[in-house]
Amino acid sequence: MADVSIRALNKKYDNGFHAVQDLDLEIRDHEFVVLVGPSGCGKTTTLRMIAGLEEITSGEIRIGAEVVNDLPPMDRNIAMVFQNYALYPHKTVFDNMAFGLQMRGYARPDIVKRVREVADILGIEALLERKPRQLSGGQRQRVAVGRAIVRHPQVFLFDEPLSNLDAKLRAQMRVELKRLHERLETTAVYVTHDQVEAMTLGDRVVVMKDGRLQQVGAPLDLYGRPANRFVAGFIGSPGMNFVDVSISSDGLQAETQGLCLPVPELVRSRGGQRLTLGIRPEALRITSGSNPKSGFAAIVDVIEPLGNEILLNFRAAGVPMVARVDPGVHVRAHESIHFTVDPERLHFFDSATEAALR
Amino acid sequence: MVIERKWKKWLLFYLPLALFILFTLFPFYWMAVTAVRPDAELYRTWRQTNAAPLWTLAPTLEHVRSLLETTAFAVWLWNTMLIAIVSTAISLVCGMFAGYALARLRFPGSEFLGTAIFITYLVPQTLLFIPLADIVRSMHLGNTPWALMLTYPTFLIPFCTWLLMGYFKTIPKELEECARIDGATRFGAMVRIIFPAAIPGILSAGIFAFTLSWNEFIYALVFMASAEQKTVPVGVVSELIRADVFFWGQLMAGALLGSVPVALVYAFFVEHYVSGLTGSVKG
Could you please report the per-residue DSSP string of B152-194? Predict the structure, then answer.
């Protein structure tokens, strides 16, 4: 059990690629923190630097009270679960899980006891004598997790551990991992590119892009109050709709061709400016009226009936948009529909800096 | 899946395969037949009565008996075995460490070194034996098994290194990283995790190295003078061909017995050997 503290962390490769830039992050004891971002954003590099598998260019990483910058991986008291599981192919499941304990000089009866305990938690007792190649993907995943928790490390590191599983198993393992974390109460750092995984697992989510931290916060904070256009677009599926608008000179309306929406208090003072407007798909409501001052009309071209909701795809103000509506709504393709939005549910971003207006 | 006509499969697949097998195996068959053919039959021409060029009418073990009694064949066999095993062991150990270093460690010039090692393998033995003979002589190793045990690795180590380097590259590096997090040093992870995971590759490198040193001719011919130090390939040729007289029966018996150990090694490890050349390790 330990907190992890990262200060002014940088990673620059020999070829000049700046993978992680000035990262500051405090991970509290027992916390489950998820690093998320598109590929190449530096999230895996950060995790590997915490693990000690990647040298850091500058900055400081602390695990507990100790600065671990120059400690080899074996002395950091961490455990890591890899995307491809990295089970030792020539060892049985039991020996895979026992290896870390053997290397640390535990007595045989103690090893057997610990491995059996963990195997019981994960439901893999029956597999202990098998070799990794005799296991299914989900079973391998469990063994990899078991190998990590059997040592009771200070910190768990997960590097996209679910991305090799099929969708159904992934959803199931997600819940299991969350349960396991509650039971073990160990600090965990989890890397994924899947924002659904990030939102469901993380106590806090760290969004990264191009080696820079974009925003840190609880999942619903990120969703409700994104710090910038990138976070707003990355978190949520389907993503937020963006359209460039200008604020009317009286500061009451956001306008662009074919679209006119009343704005919240927040942007009243920005009359005449050009801003980027963001609308969550579920914020769009269908209205029967056609008041041109409080909404816009659009022709729906593709309808995706998902069962629990319906996604309507259309173009408005020259950009593609998606609306998420109740399954009870009857809409036909190529029908003209009038949408309106509660002004309080609109997001505005500075066109130049892309930072959210708050 | 496309269902092909049966005759097409026979014509395009089984027939060429059968011809190929016939072509490959015929020399072995010829060797075996000649080894058990009595001398009287050996020079009988096609037109003579009782001619049986493709088989024998009176099989005999006479050649095998005289091979074992009149020559030092058993000693040659032992020499060859000993030299092949020792030189293979030396080359495998060196090749494993060198291959691992070239595949995994990033150091300046690692790529160049890999290529350079491969190039040394390309230098023909027929050139290399001249300077090597000088070295062997100045170290007073001539006519001892050490002359071959130490010179065979000059071509076996580059070969093993190259083959194993390729195999180590197919082993996911996460295996090693995981071992290092689990508490192993870099060296410990290599010995405890990477080498055991690479056993198919190590076995195939070993089999190849063993075969190469078993069949090696020119170094054995140059560095070994006395009859009781010779290896099978050299002994058979130098003792059973006297001037222009070929003792065909004994020659073939020697060749047959000499190829048995290699065939056994292949047969025993064939599964590992195939996966070592074609397969890769999945975590």
Answer: THHHHHHHHHHHHHHHHHHS-HHHHHHHHHTT--HHHHIIIII
